[in-house]
Design a protein that fits this description.
Blueprint: H1 2-14, H2 16-26, H3 33-52, H4 58-66, H5 70-85, H6 97-122, H7 144-154, H8 158-162, H9 169-202, H10 208-234, H11 239-242, H12 252-283, H13 290-297, H14 300-328, H15 349-352, H16 368-371, H17 373-399, H18 405-430, H19 435-458
Main location: membrane
Protein name: Cytochrome c oxidase assembly protein cox15
Catalytic activity: Fe(II)-heme o + 2 A + H2O = Fe(II)-heme a + 2 AH2
Length: 466
Amino acid sequence: MSLINTLLQRTLSHTRPLGQTTFARLFSSRSSPSVFRQAALVGRTHFLRASSGIRVPNRSTSLILTQIPARAFTRAYSSSFSSSALAKPPKRTVDAPIVGYWTLFCASMVFGIIVWGGLTRLTESGLSIVEWAPISGAKLPTSDAQWESEFEKYKQFPEYHKVHIGITLDDFKKIYFMEWFHRNIGRLFGVVYLLPAAYFVSKGMVTRAGVAKIGGLGLLLLGQGAMGWYMVASGLEKELGERPDAVPRVSQYRLTSHLSLAYLLYAGLSLYGWNVFRANRLARNKIANPEALRALMLKPAIVSFRRKITAATLLVGTTCLSGAMVAGLDAGLIYNEFPMMGLGLAPPLTELWNAFYARGNPDDMWRNLSENPTTVQLEHRILAMTTFFTLSALWWQGRRLPLPRAARVMLHTMYGFAWLQVALGISTLVNFVPIAYASTHQANSVMLLASALGLYHTLRPLRLLK
């Protein structure tokens, strides 16, 4: 037995740190010395059975265990569980990088939807589907009977009788596909946005602020879909077929609202994605000397310039929405010359402020501002040139400021898109709105807005992590 005791002591001496730690966790300081002796005896018993080959009756072990107070084990369990298993995970300070990639991909989808929506309007295809079926409408008609059924439905509405009278079934299939594809891109975008959003939030991959932003953009997405059908419904009203002077087309107010929500969604997704990437670069120390960069962005000259860029970005957005009013009224099909409008830079006042649009009520003369095609086109011209000269002045001023490299690149990019937008706008007007020119003009308006937003983003001070 002396040999066994010697071996046991040597073994325990090698595992002493573990033994001390284990007993310290199992038993509190209030346990009596006898408890520790009993526990040691239990350990020795199991050691003898496992390593020395000496058979020790289980009865002795059980008797010893029954003498150890249960509170010792209860205290140890609760202490260990509360310190490790219930430990709260560290609070996330930045969104996961994949969230940034996802939001920018969604922004690119919105860009595609805007461009295709413009093509749908330019080809006069937007009213070809006369029903709102979010689920069943995703399927394209396949049989001749299905196509005939859809064609007959379309014939019941004013656009067929005033715009597309006499078109064949093959012609109808073309305009139907344009609208069907536009709606299906919207459906696909909803899936691409909502499913990953739910996954990222459930997995804790976004911050609390990120959850709020994702939720807000999701509501904007749902509102955009509802506004789309509300817009289409305005062009399906039976009254448009009964009035001789009425043109079956969607309301320019609803068209502008529909497009404005798309621009807001695009801007929100883009800014959110850029912010995610910037925060991750800052967290991983991939931004050289962030303190100095933040100090630069807080200089009075840079702060003043950033405020001007913010105002200019809002001006760009306003001009884009003015273009939607022009499109909704087909105002680009009159005064197809530039810079003149008839005999002068502006038409006669009697044409701009026409009592016809007041609908017999002198108090409604303001309707000329949004319903008179001549007035709406002049407004768009004024806004477009004001925007161009504003961006030109800011480009000239920005060249002289100590801007970071990223901001300088975005400044030149914005100015380049401004020149291109003016050229496309004039070309579209003087050529009587060809589809290719008009579609490119609308697509470039999104790029101009994106570059202005990008410049604003690069001028924002860094939020240094604490």
